[in-house]
Design goal:
Shape: elongated
Largest sheet: 6 strands, mixed, barrel
Distance between the termini: 28 Å
Order of helices and strands: HEEHEEEEHEEEHEEHEEHHHHH
Strand content: 15-25%
Number of helices: 10
Length: 385
């Protein structure tokens, strides 16, 4: 019986360990294959230069489904000595909450003052990086202070056009320089780079509505991707080929193709394993029942003698259960040893062994229960014959 139980234990431990391995693989995918999402316009043709109300972003963040947000907003500025009607004097201002939100960030050369780092973007201090062209054009250097007139973008109700509207007079300290992108355009060109929190604060002081021009984030738990999408439908629409070409940021793109493809296969495997897991424990119970029943049949004469000498049915059952449970336990230990190269000897293996032994004992107890209905005379007559 011990050998039969050992073989069965090896099978169960390897089977349950395969479930654990697939579960760990799912968690690994959720860490190694993050799912990104980005707010776009109705047709999905614009990722930057959008009108995205801050209230919308606050609502999305409050759901708990997103993390690592990357936001930017664009404004314009003119030095106090400049002319707002002269395009040459207008500086393009980008405000970001993280260095990764900067367009083509990896292709830019950034030089910072000693003792500073890019974490300044996460605050609201009146500091900035200046574009190399902007520094040269205005004869400025890192460490200088600049006084500017700050202008915000004011969109028409449909989001197709915008005008610049004065917001505030500000003073900024230049703490570093930033180079141009490899292909500068209206969405990547930067003269002044400031913290997003500073821009939001200026809007609040002026009593002006604050909005973003780009927004992206990571799904907090990719394994709950369907729940995330269902929640986002409360705030954003799906991109459509017939959608609007305006700059209204009211749609969402989720970049989940690779994640779904990778996770789908693992989930299909787990579904099959979960389906057969209950059947497997039923089979283990049947193994315990069959092994115990056959052993009891071989010992019918011994049981009859015990009963004829006054041993009660309960005592006979207890003796059989103890004996066969010891054999089953030895088989379980042997199974752990044989399966160790595949499963190891961790806490999960101990838990699986307990489940195996519990199923085995159900079968053993069921088979041993027949002792209570054993006919003593039948066993003695068969002995005499």
């Amino acid at each position: 019986m011990a050998l039969v139980c050992a073989v069965a234990a090896v099978f169960v431990l390897i089977y349950l360990n395969s479930i654990k391995s697939n579960q760990e693989q799912l968690l690994m995918f959720s860490r190694e294959l993050p799912v990104k999402a980005r707010i776009v316009n109705g047709k999905g043709s614009k990722e930057r230069g959008l009108f995205i109300p801050k209230d919308l972003i606050d609502s999305i963040e409050s759901t708990g489904f997103v993390k690592d947000p990357l936001y930017t907003t664009r404004m314009a500025a003119v030095l106090s000595s400049g002319d707002p009607d002269d395009n040459k004097d207008i500086a393009m201002v980008l405000c970001a909450n993280d260095e990764k939100a900067i367009p083509d960030y990896e292709d830019r050369n950034i030089i910072l003052e000693d003792g500073t780092d890019m974490d300044f973007l996460q605050g609201n201090k009146p500091v900035c990086l200046a574009g190399e062209t902007f520094l040269a054009r205005n004869n400025l250097s890192v460490g200088d202070n600049i006084d500017i007139k700050l202008y915000k973008r004011k969109y028409d109700p449909y989001g197709f056009t915008y005008d610049y509207e004065w917001l505030a007079d500000c003073s900024l300290r230049i703490i570093g320089s930033i180079s141009m992108a490899s292909s500068d355009n209206e969405f990547t060109y930067i003269d002044i780079l400031c913290p997003l929190g500073w821009a939001e604060e200026k809007h609040a002081l002026a009593g002006s509505e604050f909005h973003l021009d780009s927004a992206s984030f990571t799904v907090n738990d990719p394994l709950r991707l369907n729940d995330f999408k269902a929640e986002m439908k409360k705030y954003l629409h799906s991109v459509s080929p017939t959608g609007s070409e305006s700059s209204m940021g009211d749609c969402l793109i989720v970049y989940d193709e690779i994640f779904i493809l990778s996770v789908g296969r693992v989930k299909d495997t787990l579904k099959i394993l979960y389906t057969f897991a209950p059947i497997m424990f039923v089979i283990i119970a049947l193994v315990g029942y069959t092994a115990a029943y056959l052993l009891i049949q071989d010992r019918r004469i011994d049981i009859a003698i015990m009963r004829s000498l006054g041993t009660g049915p309960a005592a006979c059952m207890a003796a059989m259960i103890i004996e066969y449970s010891i054999l089953g336990f030895m088989g379980c230990l042997l199974g752990n040893v044989f399966a160790a190269p595949w499963t190891g000897l961790g806490i999960n293996t101990l838990l699986y062994s307990m489940l195996f032994f519990a199923s085995l004992m159900i079968g053993i107890i069921t088979a041993t229960f027949r002792v209570s209905r054993f006919n003593t005379m039948t066993g003695l007559i068969k002995n005499e014959s």
